[in-house]
């Protein structure tokens, strides 16, 4: 069953796709660059499917996105353009084969509350700007080859100030 959530305004001609909840659908193939044409898309959940290939860089052009691509077979890097999705609150790529380093642009996600990147093939240091996101409540980075300081003092001070 395919469920597409549509925002219906006063005029029927102005229907807009705002959510694509498609978890556990046994979908396969690559994630289409055409998703960027859905400018009002605020939730994309493709969890537990069989998507492969890279993460389309155009997803960074959807600033309000809740993005769950967990447990697929995605490869390649996290595109730096993800930092353009400034209102992204939840970002999950856990359980894929994402490689490369975490882009420093991830620090631009000022409203991010959950970052789930565990069980990938990420390497390098954890970018310091990640610890400047005051809204970040949960970051799961285990089962990668990441290194560096966690800057726990910054995190502790952020939580104490709330």
TrEMBL record:
Subcellular locations according to the entry: Membrane
Keyword annotations from UniProtKB, A to Z: Glycoprotein, Leucine-rich repeat, Membrane, Repeat, Signal
Matches recorded under InterPro entries: DNA_repair-toleration, Leu-rich_rpt, LRR_dom_sf
Gene Ontology CC entries for this record: membrane
Protein's UniProt name: LRR receptor-like serine/threonine-protein kinase
């Amino acid at each position: 069953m395919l469920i597409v959530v549509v925002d219906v305004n006063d005029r029927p001609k102005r229907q807009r796709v705002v959510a694509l909840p498609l978890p556990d659908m046994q979908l396969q193939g690559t994630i289409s660059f055409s998703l960027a044409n859905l400018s009002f898309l605020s939730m994309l959940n493709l969890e537990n499917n069989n998507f492969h290939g890279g993460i389309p860089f155009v997803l960074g052009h959807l600033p309000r996105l809740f993005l769950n691509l967990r447990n697929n077979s995605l490869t390649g890097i996290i595109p730096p353009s993800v930092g353009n999705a400034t209102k992204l609150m939840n970002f999950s790529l856990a359980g894929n084969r994402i490689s490369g380093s975490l882009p420093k642009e991830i620090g631009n996600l000022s409203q991010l509350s959950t970052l789930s990147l565990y069980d990938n093939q990420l390497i390098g240091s954890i970018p310091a700007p990640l610890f400047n996101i005051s809204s970040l409540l949960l970051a799961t980075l285990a089962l990668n080859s990441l290194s560096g300081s966690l800057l726990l003092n910054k995190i502790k001070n952020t939580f104490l100030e709330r």
